[in-house]
Amino acid sequence: MNIILLRRRGHGGVVTVSVGRAIIAGLSALIVLPAAFMFAGYYFGLAHMRANPDDVAAVLQAELEQQRVAVEEAKRTAAENMNALALRLGQMQAHVMRLDALGQRLTKMADLDNGEFDFENPPGQGGPLAGAGGTQTLDVPDFLKTLDELAAQLEDREQQLALVEEMLMTRSLQAEVMPAGRPVNGGWLSSYFGKRTDPFTGHRVHHSGVDFAGKEGAEVVAVAAGVVTWSGKRYGYGHMVEINHGNGYATRYAHNKENLVKVGDTVKKGQVVAKMGSTGRSTGPHVHFEVLYNNKAVNPSKYLHAAR
Fold first, then answer.
1. Distances (CA, A) of 81 to 39, 140, 143, 144
2. pLDDT digits (tens, 9 = 90+) for 32-43
3. How many angstroms separate the CA atoms of 99 and 228, rounded?
4. What are the C-alpha distances in Å from 96 to residues 53, 89, 222, 260?
5. Is-above-0.70 flag for pTM?
6. What separation in angstroms does the CA of 305 have from each of 153, 183, 208, 261, 295?
């Protein structure tokens, strides 16, 4: 390869360069020049940074502020999650307390064994310890979902038990207002319902109730809960108490020595309403007991033998 060199005043020269040397010179220029530019930029950057420390401090300050904001956000989110968990826990504890109280009431109403259904202590549970592979940790979203499902189950059980309680109360109320048992705690049955010989005339007449003879002043008790609709003298009955029990039922207690309740009083089943006597059309101390259904006297026999 020939290289022609031109000089001033028209003088020139020729330099002969081999092809290999030309290639090496070109490659050297391609490698050396970029490296030179790179090192120059690096040293220029270092000089610029050393010359502007405020810029470095500003960048660091901005980064620290960003991290501080991120930490504050994480703390706020954690606090909100804890408050939500505390609220759900309080709601579930309230549900459990109501269920415990409801369970205790149902145990008493159903006359169940307190030892078998103890709502003051947790139920017996157990089982072998699971291996390390059998345990599983819940994430926060799964944990919250489990809490929501458990709260829904508790609410559903509470509604079901409340319905059972209502049914038991209805049955209990019906049992309270349904005439059942004897109107005296002692004494004996001295006259039945139906046709009998009248003790005063000797004629066969209808007897609208049953008579229980006993000691004067003995207690006369209500056979069902209700409201007193009569308390005073009545022709043939002497001192009489009449109680309305609802559902078409009423009972009468007659020939009393003394009435202990007045019209409008609410009486409970088994409550003493009078003292046995012999007032009115009577041959001796006894209580005349009637059961009326829809204002018609019916045979008290089945009510006398009903469980109290």
1. 54, 9, 11, 10
2. 556 665 666 656
3. 38
4. 64, 10, 40, 46
5. no
6. 45, 12, 18, 26, 22
